[in-house]
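Q: I have 868 residues here and want to know how they pack in 3D. Can you give me a structure?
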Amino acid sequence: MTGRRVFEVRTPEVATNVTQQQINNLPQISRNFLNFAALAPGLRVREDDTERTISAGGQTAQAINVFIDGQNRKSLINDGGVAGQDDSRGTPFPQGAVQEFRVISQNFKAEYEQAGSAIITAVTRSGTNEFHGDAFVFYQDPDWIAQDEISERRGAEKAPLKRLQYGASLGGPIIQDRLHFFGAYERKDEDRISQSFLNRTEYNDFFAADLGTTSTPYEQDIFFGKLSWQINDRQRLELSAEYKTEEDIRGASGQNAPSRAARNSGENKAFNLRHQYQGDRFLNEFAIDYLQSSYEQSVINGGDYGRRYVIFRDDSPTTPGFQYNINNREATVFTAGGRADSQFLEQKSTTIRNDLTIPDLSWMGTHTIKMGAKYSMQNYFVQKDFGRNPTFTYDIEARPEINGSRTIPVSVDLGVAVPPADADNNVIGLYIQDDWQITDKLELNLGIRWDYEDNAVNNDYRTPDSIRNMLAAIQNLPSYDFPSYFNPADYISDGDRPAFKDAFQPRFGFSYDVFGDERTVLFGGAGRYYDRIGFNFAFDERFKPFQFNKTIYFSNTGGLVGGQQTVAWNPAYLTPAGLDPLLAASPGAGEVFLVKNNFEPPRTDQFNIGVRQKFGQWQTALTFAAGHTEGESAWYIANALTETGGRFNGPSPTSVGFPQFRNTIFFQNTDKERDYKAIYLTADKPYNAQDGWGFNLAYTYMDATQNGSRDNGYAAFDFDYNVPSQSPEYRSATDERHRIVASGTLGLPADFLLSGIVTLGSGLPYNVFNCPDAPAGGPNICWNAGNPEKRAFLPGLNFAYRQVDLRLTKAFEVFGGQRVEFIADAINLFNFTNYSSFEGSYTSPRFGAGTGVFTPTRSFQVGLRYSF
């Protein structure tokens, strides 16, 4: 068994190759090949009970992209970066079908698109002239998983998890030397027992019927098939197909009753047809691919109204007695009953691409020219049914100043149905790049890319007259002007919103082989990279103004209570016959969201310089990297009272005669900026059978800062500052200053193989509230200023994040060259507690204490793999 790791030392890219030997033999619990992206410097894989995300370059997961056999797998609607990965605890592609993949942390060439931080390019397996196949099964028992520290501290029972993963692959000839096939199937079954519990345990008796455990299973099936036809010595044709389906029951844990469970479903379909023609002096690659990816969240207990139990604050603590304000709520203690929201999102794309490579052109050296064009027809379908199941709110303290009861609600909420959005988008991409070998030591990589989308942000959307008239009414108020950063004319569209045409992206790189023997190589590069914004952001402009949320307030007697007009409570309102007429009489109100007409997608300017040095079998690299990102979108408040404050005190739509809209008007702002500086140090010694060992090390030092909204994802809001320029510059949420990932494989006697991954980090920052160092003029908060406490790993080595994973494999060679392997995994072997959240109040005696944990805790898994 050889794990040959090909090092392209004369490339300006900051890249890491992950081989099939590493994919097959390094320990992991979930068979998601993207987990091993963490072996590359600058990347972080974050896993929890509900999803797995990859981030890089101090940016969010949305800024990455994944290509499988050249097919773009970008998530076009949702967060997460990768289609089918957002809000999923599965894998986006069968691991057994991956031959190898490459992680490019920085300075990728002009042929790659729609990524502002890093990309991952995977190559799938193909059949050969010999039949090869394998089958595997992995099992994890509930007793093999340690309880996390937080639930143990709470006195709760351990929430069991049982996991079963199995699958097979087969490849071989159909026609010798001409036509080959490969196929793979993988399944994942999880049965997770979720716990419902109260943090306010004094109410346990009231919720006794809703507390305890419930099963929340997860199922995933993935199929992949591929035909490879060597037409002749010059032509090759490949056709591949993939189908993935998954279903996840979740949402019935923590302060949510089992009745709150929701069903999350996902489905992916992909086809990829690729043709290669090798001419006498050129290579042409033509591809047509199709990708369909859907995500659905549905309500399981839709026939059961939702129930929310809250604690109200005293609205005037200095006034004797309890002063009731129905909107002044301290906390939600518990929720039960059916959920209110469901949604269905689906992206479809048919893409035609052609790449032409012309090598060995002579002019002041040797040139390899590669150029290409892409045309993608995309469709986005979004249907959101929010608030469609009524949710009643109750006063858990049963205060006499309110209703004096835990069974008489204070309000009910319901949202009206809104038609779905069905949008088409045409995408064009053009590029040309030149790998110019000037001398046998010096090579330049020059490229430029241009991308265009004709409907990225509702370009054909016409602003409704009601919104136009409302904005004009506020603008015409004699005593008020919109703040200077918001001009309504920049957001009102007649359906001809211009598409962005200036996405030109020059990219430059160089490498210099100092001694001409590929042992010492200087390299560097700089470039501009445009990303894109998910349709989920622009969708709010179409959806929110017409998503009328109705709220009806109740009291014992009716009339003005708690600052709101109330209806006298009648138990009949707990039935559809009693509630429906009441809701029908309430008009409700939507929210105004405004997208900028001259929208520019986010862009990142990257720079790196470094040196690669070979020492015997070791390949090392030291890289200095930097990046500056502009143009991230977030929602800000347009009708603020002043330039720098009064975000909730300006004139409202209702005040100028438009009660169908809520008080706050949101507008898209793209002034958010990020800065990233990093040092990468890598050392690699590939595994080979002769030495019997291999080792890889990736160290990252990073300093990532930003301004603007602290929210991540496409639905980012900022309620703390009027515009990003008024916020301080602060550490990004992904700014882990130090991170070490070391992996290795060691051959042992008697066909044993030991492999492991050690991950150490200084930890992610957290927000500090009631912060004495908060900047003047803003909230009393220091964003991401808290540093997790570091704990001992080895004497003198302290880290906030510590994880050691090991795998032991015993191989048996059986008849006819067949092989059977018994596998044992130990994940987080020493059961280190890695906190994911912290007590952030500076005035709390528990300031800095962990309040949540990253998974996994110590977990064991056994497996069996058969191959021939």
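Q: Anything worth noting?
A: DSSP finds five helices and 44 strands in the chain. Residues 216-350+387-415+549-586 form one domain.
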